[in-house]
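Limitations
The C-alpha cells in this dataset are predictions for the assembled complex, not deposited experimental models. Users should treat interface geometry with appropriate caution, especially where small molecules or nucleic acid strands are included. An illustrative entry is reproduced here so readers can see what is and is not provided.
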Amino acid sequence: MKSLRYLIPLLIFAALLALMLKGLGQDPKEVPSPLVGKPAPAFTAQQLHVPEKQFSASDLKGNVWMLNVWASWCFSCRAEHELVTRMAREHGITVVGLNYKDEPADAKAWLRQFGNPYVTSVMDQAGDIGIEYGVYGVPESFIIDKSGVIRRKVIGPINDSPDEKPQNSVEQLLAFMSKLETE
Amino acid sequence: MYRLAYQLPLLLLVLLSAPLYAVFETYTFETPEQERIYKKLTEELRCLVCQNQNIAGSNAELAQDLRKKAYEQVKQGKSENEVKTWMVDRYGDFVLYSPPVKGTTMFLWAGPLIFLLIAFVVLWRIGRARRKQTSETQPVDEHSLEQARHMLENKES
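Predicted assembly:
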C-alpha cells in the first residue's frame, strides 16, 4: 500500500499531461458557436445582383443549404471559393452567399473573376447579419437543415487537403449534408 | 537631485498611463449609470478577433461593431446582464472574460481551491509525520554517551 502512494503524483502528472495535450490539439482561435442546434437567425436583406429583391433565410425552408460568409477583401475566401463552387456545381448544394462588409461593386467584380456558385448573395455591408450569426472572421459557413436549424458551423476556409482541419473538409461537409437530406 | 527631478515625472507618466484604455469613439449617454454599464461591458467583453483584448481596448472592426451594439442596447435602457446574454447568445461564453459558473466551468472555478486544499492536506501530513518522528526519539542513556566520548577522544591515537 505504501509503495503505491508514490504513484499518486505520477498519476496526477499523467492526468495533467493528458489535459494539456488535448489543449494543444485545439485551435484557440476556434470559438464554438452557441448557435449550432438553434434556428438560423431570421434576416431579410438586399440581394447583391438584384438589390430591389430581398432574400429571407426562411425562403429556403424545406431545403438543406449552406450560408457561406465571404468578402472580396478576404484572402482565404479566394482559396475556398473553388471548393464552394465544386460543392454547388458538382454536388448540387444550395449555397447562399453572405457578402460581409463589402462594396457591392468589388463583390460583383470578384464573382465575375472567380465564378459565382451562389444561388444568391445577400449584402451585409454593416455586418449586422454577421453579428446575428456570431461571425467573427471570414470565411465562415453555416449548414442549415430543412427545418431551418443551424446544424454545423464551419470556421475558416473549407479545404480538400488531408493535412488541414478534417472538420472543414469538403468530403465531411458533403457527407454531413447528404445525411441531413435524408432526415 | 537633478536625476530625481527628471525621473520622477517619467515614472509617474508610466504608472498613470497603464490603467487607461484607448477610447476610439465618443458616445454620449443620458445618465451616468448608462455610461458606467457601457464602460463595464466593454471592459468585460472579449474581442473575438484579437482574443486577448477586451472590446474597449481593441480597434478591430468587430470590436467597434460590438461596442456599437452594446452602446445601442444600453441606450435603450437594457441592463448589463441583458446585453451580456445578447452577446453570449451569438458568440458563446467565450465572449465573456470571466466565464459563468456552471457544470462545464466548475473545475475552472473550483480548481485553485481544490489544489490549495490538497496542498494543506499534504503539509499537514508531513507535519504530523515529523512530530511523530521527534516524539519517538529515545533519550540517550549515560552509558552510550560515555562510549561515544571515549571513541571521540581516542580518535587521534
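Some entries come with short summary sentences. For this one: Residues 7-25 of chain A form the longest helix (19 residues).
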